[in-house]
Every structure is written in structure tokens, then in C-alpha cells.
Amino acid sequence: MAERYQNYVNGAWSDASSGSVSTSTNPADLSDVIGEFQASTAGDVAAAITAAHDVKESWRRTSSLARGGYLLKAAAYLEANPEEFAQALTRECGKAILEARGEIGRAVALLQYYGVEGSNPVGSVVPSVNPEILLYTNRMPLGVVSLITPWNFPFAIPIWKMAPALVYGNTIVLKPASATPHVATLIAKMWEAVDLPAGVFNLVTGSGSAVGNELITNDKVAAISFTGSTRIGMNIAAESAKRGKRYQLEMGGKNPVIVLPDADLEQAAEITVSGAMKFSGQKCTATSRAIVVGNVMEEFTNLVVEKTNALKIGAGADPESIIVPVIDQASKDNIASMIKRGVDDGGQILAGGGVPSGADYDKGTFVEPTVINNVAADAYVACEEIFGPVLSILPAGDAENALDIANSVEYGLSAGIFTKDLNSVLDFADRIEAGVVKINGETAGLEPQVPFGGMKASSSGDREQGKAAIEFFTQTKTIYVDRSAT
Ligand code: NAP
User: Fold this and answer.
1) pTM for the full model?
2) Nearest residue CA, atom 14 of ligand 1?
3) Residue 385 near ligand 1, beta carbon < 6 Å
């Protein structure tokens, strides 16, 4: 019998009013049921929002040093037993255990960063034209913020939203992806363990279609921070804008690398394959297109195919596995149909293209790492996000043409270039339409102390992480104090 988990609302664990639950399973072994989770209703979400609303004033009035103190205690709590959390991540989202450990390490770093941020200055004193006036700015919290998060970084993404949200004085309601509710309950337990005041953090599980609308439209919600697909994100933007609510969206990507003829091809192929294939390409910043300039195409392609064929496919719990299961059967089917469409459009499969067979693979949702060439730059497979271990290799006549191809899609999250030429580097950094730019580096992989976000259909609203997070989670007040009248 699977363990049953509850929502965490107003400092207490509670059942959803629907009386229904849904299950979460291990993508490496679909017979491994992780637990049953509350299928919440709009009413349950409204109750969580009210709980957050009722304490927003007392949380705002809590010193930001004290707020940061809770984050530092949470970091210490995770650090005391990181393996428990890493194992839970691997079991629920399929991620390789080494990457799961990295994700927990990142959550610790985020909590520490924003914990310390609680003692940093906010606002500034500005000279007034009138010497009797003290003129200063202050940063005020927004109030209640809804956090809607995806399954691919089920620990780090909620933390990178909630750590700044909390330290800057907001109260929150988290709705995690339906595929990874267990990891979210571990986050709730963390806040419970460090005695975060009741109502400041609330967790409600349930499907986006059932509870999403309430999280966005409830009058007590001041802002929505969302990470997920562009389709859902754009709808959140429209609904938020109608109601004058602030929103922040981090969405899909179709991330390119450009390989110039002077690049270290061995290094470029190694990094490209790593960026495209680790976690089976299920990162918003995963490399999806390699755009190769000039006569190095054959050598680069051979290296990529060789390295792709050497990747071990297996469950994330095996430390040797690079190609882990994709999140669920629907995703596996979608990846297969994208590959088929690529072939129908004239693409040639150079590696993978199918699913691995055998007892270890049949019980999970595995797909082979796939390299495809001969597709046009505007073919569906070369323009749309796949969210699987699939890399398209595209030819370009020169660096200018490569940049045009790189910029031709609707997304603009992350991009890289491989070259030793400084002018090419600087030109690329200026003109590529991407929020994250890597020079001789992997498109995936971010540091938490710097801003993160994309351009075009990949993002909307203020940047996340680093000092930039203050822009979304606070509003500026300008205060004039006339001393002559006091
Ligand atoms: P998704 O299907 O858009 O879901 C994201 C979240 O939105 C989930 O919690 C989902 O709940 C919820 N949701 C679904 N329908 C909703 C609705 N009508 N109203 C409000 N919320 C709703 O995305 P995903 O499949 O979980 O994640 C993969 C996507 O995330 C990819 O496109 C990837 O590129 C993107 N991503 C972007 C970044 C970034 O920083 N740019 C980072 C990671 C992932 P349910 O799970 O219950 O449907």
C-alpha cells in the first residue's frame, strides 16, 4: 500500500476536500509507486491563499535578517542529510544520482545566498532639491505569491523562487508539477523542521487544470512566478495581465551551439553531447541544435555520433547512467513522434532513433539518445522544443548564416559558440538572441548568484536568481520626509 501524503497549509498537514488522490511513480520502474498525493480543488487552493494572506503583514514586519535566518537554517537542514533528498529526486524524476546530488547542492547554495541577502541593504537615500527633505527608496514585498513549478528540477526551481520570495517578505503558495509531488512534500517538511511561521509557506498538490486558475485569478494573489511550457506560461501571462497582477515566466528553449571551423572539435563535440544528452535532454537549457560552419562538418558529426553511442542508458540510481528514463509515457511518445516527423521531413538518423529493449528498459520510459542531420533549419524538429535526448545537426555557410539560423526560432533561452577567435566571440555575445550565452561551454549549467532568464518566447518578466530576483519579488516605494514640518 502506497504511503499517502497531504497538503501543507497554514502550518498543518491536511487532506484535499475532494477526498481524491493521484499517484506518483518512478520513471525507471513504473511499478514502483512512490505515494498517493492530494488531488486538490480550487477551494483547497483558496484556503491556502487565505492562510498566506492572513500572515503577510506579520511576515512583512519580521526583520529581513530573521527571515534570512530561516533560510540559513533550511540550508543547514538539507546539508545534514543531502543523500536522502538526492535519492528521492532520482526516484521521482528519474535524474542521474550525480545530477540529483548537484541539484540538492544548488538548493543549499540558493538558501545560503538569499539567507545572507536578508542582511544586505535595500533601497537608497537620494539627495533632494530641498535640503529639508529626506528622500529615500525602500523595497516592499508584494504580498501573496503563487509559485507554479515543473518536474525537471523539482527541488531547485521551487527553492530558487521561494528563497528570494520569502527573504524579501512575501508569503507563498507552491503548486508543484503533478509528476513530482513527493519532492515538494520534502520541501514542506524542510520548512516545518525549521519552524517557519504557519501560513508563510503553503503546499497544495493537484493538477494544473484543476487548481491553476485559482492560483492565478484569486484576488488575494499579488503575483505569479511560473516555470514550465510556453503554452501554459502564455496563458498565465494573459490571465494575469487582465487582472493587473505581476507575473514572471520561465519557459521553453531550443538552444543552439555554433561550431566554427577553428574550434577544438573534440572539446566542442564532448560539450555538445553532454549538453544535449544529460538527463535525457530534459533541461530547458539543453542543447538541441548544433550549427556547424564550413568543412569541419564531417569530423564534428563523427565525433558527436561516436560520443553519443558511448553513453550508458540506465536508471538514474546507477551512477554510470547518462541516458535516464524520460519523465513519463506521454513524453516518451511525444519524443518518438518528433523523431518520426524529423525523418518524414527528410532527416537522417545517425545515432539512436528508437527505444532500448531488455528487461531493465521495458519497465521504464527509456528512449535512445538520437542524432539527426539533413533536416532544414526551419523543419519542425529543428524549431520546436523536444525535451528529450535528441540533437539536430545543421550546416551553415559561414558565421553570419549560423547566427541567422540560431536566431530563427521563437525561443531564446541559452546558446553557445565554439571558437578561439575573439572577434567571433564578442560578435556572438552581442547578437545572439538568448538570455544565457556560453563561450566554449555547455548551454546547460547555471550558477545561482547571477541572473537567469531568456529572451523571446522563453521568458517574460523579471530575471530569476542572483541579485536580480529582488526586482520581481519587491516593489519600490519612494519616500519624502519633510523635516521642517516634523
Ligand atoms: P508544464 O506542463 O507547462 O507544467 C508546468 C507547471 O504548470 C506544472 O506545475 C503544471 O501542473 C502547471 N500547469 C499545467 N496547466 C496549468 C494551468 N492551466 N494553469 C496553471 N498551471 C498549470 O511544463 P512541464 O512539462 O512541467 O515542464 C517542462 C517545460 O518547462 C519545458 O517546456 C521546459 O523548457 C520548461 N522549463 C523551463 C525552465 C526555465 O527556467 N526556462 C526551467 C525548467 C523547465 P501539472 O503538472 O499538474 O500539469
Assistant:
1) 0.98
2) 208
3) yes
